[in-house]
Amino acid sequence: MAESSPTPPIACGLCGGAPPEEPRRGFLARLVALGLGAAAYLTPVVAGLAAFLNPLRQKSQAGQFVRLASLETLDTTPRKVAVIMDRTDAWNLYPKQPVGAVWLRKVGPKEVKALHVVCPHAGCFIDYDAAAGQFVCPCHLAHFDLDGKRLEANSSSPRDMDALEVDYETQGGTTYVRVKFQNFRIGTAEKIEA
Amino acid sequence: MNSWMAWLNERTGIAAWWQACRQRTAPLRCRTLASWPSVILFLFFLEAVTGLVLWMYYSPSAQTAWESVYYLQYEVLGGGLLRALHYHGGQVLLAVLGIYVLHMLFRWAYRAPREVVFWLAVLLVLVTLGVLLTGDLLAWSQRGYWSTNVRTNFLLLIPGIGEPLRRLAIGGPEMGHLTLTRFFALHAGLLSAVFAGLLWLHAKALRRADAAEEAAGRPGYPLWPVQTAVNALACAVALGVVLVLAATGVELGSPRDPIDAYAAARPDWYFIGVYQFANYFPGSLKIIPIFVVPGAIVLLYLAMPFIGRTLAGHVFNLLAAFGLLAAAAVLSWIALAHDRDNAAHQASLRAEAETAQRVRQLIQAKGIPPTGALALLWDDPKTQGPKLFKQHCASCHDYNGGPAPILSEKPSAPDLYGLASVPWLTGFLDRKQLTFNPPAEELSPTNRPKYFGNTKFRDGKMAAFLRDDLPEVLKDIDDGPAQFKKLIEALAAEASAKPGHKPPEDVLALFEDFTCTSSGCHHFHGQGQLGTAPDLTGYGSREWLIGIISDPAHKRFYGARNDRMPSYAPAGQPDQHILTPRQVEMLADWLRGQWYEPAAVAE
Questions:
Q1: Cα B136 to Cα B269: distance, rounded to the nearest angstrom
Q2: What distance in Å separates the CA atoms of residue B110 and residue B314, rounded to the nearest whole number?
Q3: Residue among A10, A44, A54 minimizing CB distance to B106
Q4: Interface pTM (ipTM) of the complex?
């Protein structure tokens, strides 16, 4: 196995034969080696980054009014009502799915207040403590009154519970409560649409 | 050198490493040959980076694989380009590896001390084939699914272990979720890691061989900067080729349909020669072209460093390698030429492309349900109608019109194209056309029984009425022919009338005057009676068609006089159903031309 041939048997015209000792072409060669090499390697990275960053240009679903309950089924104590809507998850469209919930409470004979169940602090679902007559977030123990106002001076929640727009619709003698269901950004003092 | 570089260097030796890189030398051979490994490394990097991002969007399951790729392709910015780069990058990588192996052969650069270098390159080709074949399935398209189905079934050709081997390949007795997860793990995990490992070993072996040659007295020359520049240029050219190919895009096709085998599924270019070669062998001998001959070729390649020790052996290797390449080229050309001239193959390609376009329309209109995009196609009258008709109706009925007429081998029942339309009814109510029945040997697309010519109703009451009574009736009625036209129009209007409507009195009187109802044969909106001939109420409407397809022997239609038509979904007898109620609806909707079409795009 020790045999080895000193010269290739067939020469191709592409490469020429002389050993390269070319200090003057050194700069050009360096430029090509680094510049072209870097450009080649960067191309797939850029293409990959474009797709990787796609979530940044996507918008979340806009708020829309959904019928939640008839007026007569509601009371002055809050009731948690599921919101059923079409939901899109990447490529799938899930028709008529529970997408969230809303606390509904009568504040007048024909008036309802709607509060989002999601806590503005860290996105947990807020419970209603019937004995104390207040809302409480089980994750970090923020308490809210029936109107959604924070009860602690240094509440873990940066803002009051998120109220949602309500309107009413009468059909066949029954009045239904419709709520504009939308999500708000978590963790901010102002209420910003997510 | 600043202090933190010194700090880093002290702990890593990076400066010495960089110095060693810059001072590396290799024996002068051929700049192009020396640059292939750089191109291979670059293409592997391209595949790894694009593959990683594809991975972020990919969901391997039978209901989400195609759907997630669809989302990437059409909803993600640059997603289509990313997929095209990954796909074509893989093809170019395989081609470059093949050229590299041939170039080594051509330059006699595979003999001592370079045997291992050569072997590793051959192994890289084999692993790349594995990566491409497993990647082919992942989009779960008709083409990928059905060609993988064929390939994995070929494993059954191997005596003894074929069946367990196939099960191991597809993850169970049938292809499904587990085939995808398995292929994905092989494609993006195991095989890619093996590729990286082999490439690293190849680089090691290459340096060792270079050092051995230099030690034996061949002059070395520095790789930096000129050879490195050549390498960079070669990578840029390879990238250019990938970009040009990627500009043509990469098709997604239609989602795999487990009950609609795709006849035009063909392997990619690298296996089309083997495909054609296998076509020359009978089924019992397929193991020869699929496993024995390719296996022998691989063994030959692995033996080449030994055969090529002498000039005669080297010449033999060259003849064998380029001879095989030429044979593969000729076989591929034969296969492609055959497919190009094969009308059935072209029709299958067109049908697939139409389905792919259709599913996009449906997705844009309705979104992809949780059951996957295939559910949209399975619920689409435009897609299912012709298939159901061919399968269940075309043994007797023609559908002789539209862009894709369906002709029965032995037409015996009415042509259903334009059923219940004015022209169709006008022909029906013409005795000659009603009973027309050319001899079997004179059948042509334009010379066929269109109505009752080949049924027992050819000599039935309707034909007798048209022959014996209608001329009299036409004479008795004032302005008979015009009234007859009105009758036809009124009957045709039933097809699009809303259920529960009531036609005006003069229309009811027409049916009375022409004895449709007064003869006791037909029922029409409360006049006449059921039981003799089909109900004319809602004739040709969706509800009427669903009724007659479901149960023509119902007294509302032909009752006991029904000729040969099966009841496809008789009410209350689910065990007798040949079609599901939904399939009957889709047939009815398709016959009536009722399906979703996207609104024409405004200019």
A1: 13
A2: 10
A3: A10
A4: 0.87
For residue B2, the model assigns a pLDDT of 81
Window 48-87 of A, Cβ < 8 Å to B:
48, 50-52, 54, 57
3-state secondary structure of B233: helix
Q: Looking at chain A, which residue has its C-alpha nearest residue B47?
A: A44
Terminal-residue alpha carbon distance, chain A: 72
Give the model's pLDDT for residue B481.
87
Q: How confident is the model at residue B22 (pLDDT cuts 50, 70, 90)?
A: confident
Q: Which of B16-20, B240-244, B410-414 tops mean pLDDT?
A: B240-244
What are the pLDDT digits (tens) for B269-285?
999 999 999 999 999 99
For the segment B287-313, the average pLDDT, to the nearest whole number, is: 97
Average pLDDT, chain B: 94
Listed in sequence order, the residues at least 6 apart from B221 whose beta carbon sits closer than 8 Å to its beta carbon are: A19, A20, B25, B26, B27, B28, B227
CA separation for the pair A126, A147 (Å, rounded)? 13
pLDDT number for residue B219: 85
Contacts of A139 (CB under 8 A, 6+ apart): A119, A121, A122, A124
Pull the structure tokens for residue A148: 């959604």
- A 84-123: CB under 8 A from B: 88, 90-95
Q: What percent of chain B has pLDDT over 70?
A: 99
Minimal-distance CA residue of chain B relative to A16: B30
Q: DSSP secondary structure string, B81-146?
A: HHHHHHHHHHHHHHHHHHHHHHHHHHTTTTSTT-HHHHHHHHHHHHHHHHHHHHHHHTT-BHHHHH
pLDDT band at B482 (very low <50, low <70, confident <90, very high): confident
Confidence at residue A10, expressed as pLDDT on a 0 to 100 scale: 42
Q: Which helix (H) or strand (E) holds B26?
A: strand B25-27
CA of A47 to nearest chain B CA: how many angstroms apart? Answer: 6
Tell me the C-alpha to C-alpha distance, in Å, between residue B239 and each of A44, B127, B200, B275, B282: 9, 21, 21, 29, 42
**B149: closest CA among B175, B168, B187?**
B175
Cβ contact, residue pair B229, A30, below 8 Å: yes
Low-confidence ranges of chain A (pLDDT < 70): 1-25
pLDDT tens column, B434-470: 999 998 888 888 899 999 988 989 888 899 899 888 8
Q: How far is it, in rounded angstroms, from Cα B209 to Cα B216?
A: 11
Partner-chain residue, chosen from B71, B72, B226, that has the shortest CB–CB distance to A20: B226
Between A and B, how many residue pairs show a Cβ–Cβ distance under 8 A? 149
